[in-house]
Amino acid sequence: MSFQTADLYDVHEGKVEVCLPIFISFGLKNKFFGEIVTIKCHEDNTLVGDTLRNENGKGKVLVIDGGASLRCALVGDLIAAAAVKNQWEGIVVNGCIRDSVEINKMSIGIKALNTNPTKTVKRKTGIFNETVNFANVKFRPGAFLYSDEDGILISDTALI
């Protein structure tokens, strides 16, 4: 995978959205890209776990809008391992992860606001594949996300 978000921005300026630089990188993959799949949830990762455990993620990036809650983690090592097993390209979390030491050994790219050892409650709530808005961009299911060391770009069309 050979791309730089800065170069993609230069070539497609005016056609891409750029996330605010609020995320920390986790996992071994510094770069990832794919078609956006979204989940909106608040302090309940039931749908996140179900999606990453049961759906093939080849060519896809899961974007989780956790409402920027820092009170608990929406992704941990078991869920991240399921994402790797099911070939998800990466995960973006508007919230926290946990088990970062283990996740940092995995072949996945994750961007999140921070870490928190607290697990979520399991109320089986959440909304799958609707447009979510955070970091000053709209994440639309079916659009494309490109992430590297410099940041995250969103495009309505595939750029590479």
Which characteristics define this entry?
4 helices; two-stranded antiparallel sheet; Glucose Oxidase, domain 1; globular; alpha/beta; 160 residues; ten-stranded mixed beta sheet
Q: Determine the N-to-C terminus distance.
A: 9 Å
Largest sheet: 10 strands, mixed
CATH architecture: 3-Layer(bba) Sandwich
Number of domains: 1
Rg over alpha carbons = 14 Å
Q: What this model shows, in words?
A:
The protein has 160 residues and is an alpha/beta fold. It has a single domain, classed as Ribonuclease E inhibitor RraA/RraA-like (Glucose Oxidase, domain 1, 3-Layer(bba) Sandwich), CATH 3.50.30.40. The chain contains four helices and twelve strands, in the order αβββαββαβαββββββ. The strands form two sheets. Strands 1, 2, 3, 4, 5, 6, 7, 8, 11 and 12 form a ten-stranded mixed beta sheet that branches. The chain is globular and about 45 Å long. 41% of the residues are buried. The mean pLDDT is 97.
Q: Which helices and strands occur, and which strands form pairs?
A:
Elements: H1 5-12, E1 16-18, E2 24-26, E3 32-40, H2 46-54, E4 60-65, E5 73-75, H3 77-85, E6 90-97, H4 100-103, E7 109-115, E8 127-128, E9 132-134, E10 137-139, E11 144-148, E12 151-155
Parallel strand pairs: 3-4, 4-6, 5-6, 6-7
Antiparallel strand pairs: 1-12, 2-7, 3-8, 3-11, 9-10, 11-12
Helix pairs in contact: 2-3
